[in-house]
Amino acid sequence: MIVNQKKIMVISNNGASPWLKRIADGLGMLGKLTVLPECGLAALDEPEEPYEIMLLDASGLEMELAERVAWLHGRFPQTPIVVLTSSPTWRRARAVLQAGASDYVRRSMEIDALLERCRSLMSWSP
């Protein structure tokens, strides 16, 4: 039996971060994971099968956060985008949600809540 793996993308400019390693290990349980720095987005080809979810690390972005979310949403309109931040504010939350993000959450080493949110957004079937 062939199982169709979910495609997950994490966009982060903090490749050496212990947080990124931890989140990548956890998300790897949900499907096929791609971790990409922001500079790699311009060369990203449209995949044959769309990503089920994208997670955007808000720290260290080159483009303003709401602009990056709008760009991603315009390119991948059917893909839920979760913005992860270490310092959430209601103004940023409003801006990224209006730009097309599906959720705006605090970055944490405790990833159980994030995994549950990702499952929900991907219409996960246990």
Q: Which class best fits the helix and strand makeup?
A: alpha/beta
Q: How far apart are the first and last residues' alpha carbons, in Å?
A: 16 Å
* Overall tally of structural domains: 1
Judging from the principal axes of the Cα atoms, what is the shape?
globular
| Helix content bin | 25-40%
Strands, total number: 5
Order of helices and strands: EHEEHEHEH
**Mean pLDDT, nearest integer?**
87
Question: What would you give as the CATH superfamily?
Answer: Response regulator
- Beta-strand residue percentage: 15-25%
Report the sheet with the most strands, covering strand number, pairing sense and barrel closure. Answer: 5 strands, parallel
CATH fold description: Rossmann fold
Description:
There is one protein chain. Helices cover 33% and strands 21% of the residues. The protein is built from four helices and five strands. It has a single domain, classed as Response regulator (Rossmann fold, 3-Layer(aba) Sandwich). Helix 3 links the parallel strand 4 and strand 5. Strands 2-1-3-4-5 form a five-stranded parallel beta sheet, with helices on both faces. By secondary structure, it is an alpha/beta fold. It is globular and about 35 Å long.
